[in-house]
Sequence to fold (273 residues):
Amino acid sequence: MNLLQAAELGAIQGLTEFLPVSSSGHLVILQHLFKIAEPPMHFDIMLHVATMLAIVWMFRRDIDVLLLDGWKQMHGVFKKGGNPFWQKRGALRYLLLLVLATGVTGVIGLTFEDWFESMFANVRGVGFALILTGGVLLLTLRAPKGEGIVSTDQMVWWHAVLIGVAQGLAVMPGLSRSGTTIAVALLLGLSRPLAVQFSFILSIPAIMGAAGKEILSCDNPTPVGILIVGMVAAFVVSYFCLHLIRLIVKHGRIHWFAFYCIPLGLVVALFLR
Fold:
């Protein structure tokens, strides 16, 4: 792999990671059509880390508040007693909902890991998953109107469970993580800004966990220069796409991507072997 290829792969990863079109699904399709060799595992992992850093930077103020206020609330619970921590509101409640959703995602990911991995060799399955992504996106047209749930203080535990299930299932190539989790959040009545924020902050521990697991089993590191070029390209493009998807969801247009995912999925499922 040369520097230009590293930049191209990083840009593709950044473009498809946060737009609701499934980055893994596109990777499988491109590899099938053009006989592209799968990128080295270490390189692929670091591209995901770069997109995660874009999320951290985009939501850095929200994350700072969550961690600082959450720690203060947790410290107060153990120091002063009173209501148990699961009855708290504000940052601590937000963190607990994230932990619950992440736990559900982890259980699904580990339970069906082999099946999800087998899907990377099944291009027709990716086509059907893209059609499913499009169908889920179209369902957002039936999402509750108005402000809805504007704070995690108004969320209940099963909201986090269902969003966590959506994220866990989206390990399947072709099923968009961002599209599925945002769509489920909107259908549950979360406001558009909260649906986007909760979905992307929720992805941080999932990406960290997956990256850590793969790094421990990876013994073929990529040259530093290629890593830097790929990660910079992925970070820049994904940061732009984060702004774009926030704007699209804000204006209630996320279902537009269904008119890309469904035709592409039909072509892949019917004509690719």
Observations:
- The chain has a mean pLDDT of 87.
- The longest helix spans residues 224-250.
